[in-house]
Amino acid sequence: MNTAFGKILEKKIFKKVFSVVILLSSVVGAVMNSYAVWTLGVSTGVSCIIGIIYIVMGISALMQNQIMEKWRNKKLEMLMGIYSCFFIYDFMILLLWWIFSALFMVSGKAQAMGVFVLDILAVIIVALGYLHAKNIKYTAYSIPLGLRGNTCRIAMMSDIHLGVFVGEKHIQNIVDKVNRLEPDLVVICGDIIDVNNHILEDDEVLGRISSLFCKIKEKKGVFAVLGNHDPKADNKKFADFLRASNIQLLHNQVIQLEDFCLAGRTDASNNCRSSMESLAKEINSSLPVIVLDHNPSGIPEAVEFGADLVLSGHTHKGQFFPVTYFTKLANGKHYFYGHEQFGKTHAIISSGAGFFQLPVRIGTSNEIVDIHIS
């Protein structure tokens, strides 16, 4: 992350703040819903039960990682992800309602009814966000790289996050979308696997997903780099999965294609990372250079080197409102999303083809990037 705010988010304090927000959201929901039930004349016992349910759900959301390490139940993790989203939106809406009710002196019963209506609204928002996360759109760019009269169509994707929320159906959708483009080249800019890597323990599922990836139709290959959530490059299970999927990993490597050089830089989170200076030794300087680098924070180094095009992901474009604004603030507007140009260097940052931790897309979309270079 390239800003001062981004540096703060990279520290452990951000995770603690996010945990406090989830807990606070569940407490606010517990208090306002319990009070609303009591105001409408329902028994105190029912009011207390509702409050306890909210608090228990909030605590379980905070302890999601510990719970999943012990039970590893996909349906339970999915459920916790969904109601964590609900807490966030319920909290924001109820807080606004509380302020509105105080300013305009809304009566107790009207305020109580409003709480239930807004609870339903939060459910609808999260449900729509969950359904929207199943869809994938195309985003197209045309980039002149000086290919001497030739053209190349690249299908770019990033941040698939195979795991609890992204499985075979989503991969089938991705493959179908890619094949409709009839690309010359396919690139995956990191985070193929989700954060806990549990899917690597399921050989049967991995085999089916590999079979789907093998259905990608391209002319020059499928290439990938490692992101911050991917396992180490020497992880045998992961390497076997990539090999079976016909995906060539560029682990701090350069490959020369007919019209340009493709350089893959590995994210430093779980692996060693080579500098652009060291990769330059393998690059044919007479050809345009396309760099695959998961985190857009690496773009300035590629610009300094003189790369022609940098392809990144990582930001998810914030994935859902209001995180979208914090993500843009953390990365800076030029390293957040879309097409940017720094001198001769073009950069494209994708919102990703998948999603993670919270299974929603609200205010953003999954995408396959359709890049025409000439």
UniProtKB/TrEMBL annotation:
Designated name of the protein: MPP superfamily phosphohydrolase
Regions that span the bilayer: 17-38, 44-64, 76-100, 112-131
Organism: Blautia caecimuris
InterPro entries in UniProt: Calcineurin-like_PHP (IPR004843), Metallo-depent_PP-like (IPR029052), Metallophosphoesterase_sf (IPR051158)
Protein keywords: Membrane, Transmembrane, Transmembrane helix
SUPFAM superfamilies the record matches: Metallo-dependent phosphatases
Lineage: superkingdom: Bacteria
This protein's record includes keyword Membrane: yes
Start and end residues of each Calcineurin-like phosphoesterase domain: 153-317
